[in-house]
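To whoever is on call:

I kicked off a structure prediction for a single chain this morning and the downstream step that reads the tokens threw a length-mismatch warning. I double-checked the sequence; it's 394 residues and nothing unusual in it as far as I can see. Pasting both halves so you can look.
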Amino acid sequence: MAISSRLDTARVFSMVLLPTLAKGVIVRRPGVMALSEKLQADGTAIDTMRHLRDRYGPEPVRLRITGRSVAMLVDPADVGRLLAESPEPFALATKEKKAALKHFQPHGVLISEGTSRERRRELNERALRPENVPVDAIVRDEADLLTRHVMSTGELTWDAFAQAWWRVVRRIVLGDRARDDEQLTDDLKALRENANWAFLHPKQRDLRERFQRRLDEHLGRAEEGSLAAQPGDLAGQVPHWLFAFDAAGIVTMRALAIGGRGTYGILESARLWPTTPVILRESTKPTRWHGTWLPENTEFVVFAPFFHRDPDRLPYADEYAPEIWDRPLDPAIVPFSGGPGVCPGRDLVLATGSAMLDALSEHLAFPKLTAPLPRTLNHFGLRMHATPTGTRVS
């Protein structure tokens, strides 16, 4: 069994896990993101994982932690197996994930188990289909306003993009009458900030109840042309839909920075800078890996930036390479996770993000980041000079 030395365990914690947690797993922290970009922290983390693989070989590397079995995966084939064999014997609902997400979505599918998970998963897959919502029309409405704003200022900033993006999200999820309900998504952001601390932050029940009341008002209308009109008990699932659309906005803004268009631009942005940098699974029974048994309740950690941008395996690691999505992929390139736990909103996210890219790119051109692309990219700090194109008049 590959068991890391105490020094290598300390390296993994200090160079990989703690910096990832510090940036904010549930909602990003602007100050830490800015520092991480300056230090290119993900580059250091990737190199740390390369060292771990080179020293200990392809089997999962068990960290030296008293009272907890934690294994870092370093082999792409193992990532494929872990995701394919979820939720049994590799459960999605890990202790850490439950502690974080219970702050704002205690009934979400990600932390559900057994028959509850099966029922909620089916609801998510049925509801989150792009054809259920007029995605293109909603995106073009808001992109038009954003284009006018950018033409008047001469640049696209994250703040301007995020305001337009959240209007799109509220309309898609809850309907046009929710378009300007910034209080709803501000309350959700506050709850997600608490969730960043998982076990360490007390639950703010009053805030969560206020958020849920506002959400229930929107859901009660079941406005036609929104996800809220889909059948089923949506109240416990919608907080996660809103949460996931935040990551989708980050991916879309970064895709603009690399000149991405359409679905492949979104996929490449998510490969280059995964918005779910750590994928967790917890074993429900002993499992065998490369001839070695790991005990029940082992937490398996997939550090996505390492697998997505490992220069030893991927000749395009630090390049914008949309062509890779036309052929079979490395099993560890999983921007939307994989297996039975793959993101049920994947197609909706791709449709919304690519619609925004295409709508903005019709009338605006932006300078592109060039290879080698940075391993850490702070979306909060993006300010892109815009040049009008086509026939659009401000």
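Update from on-call: the warning came from a stale cache, not from the record. Cleared it. Sanity check on the structure: The two ends are 64 Å apart (CA to CA).
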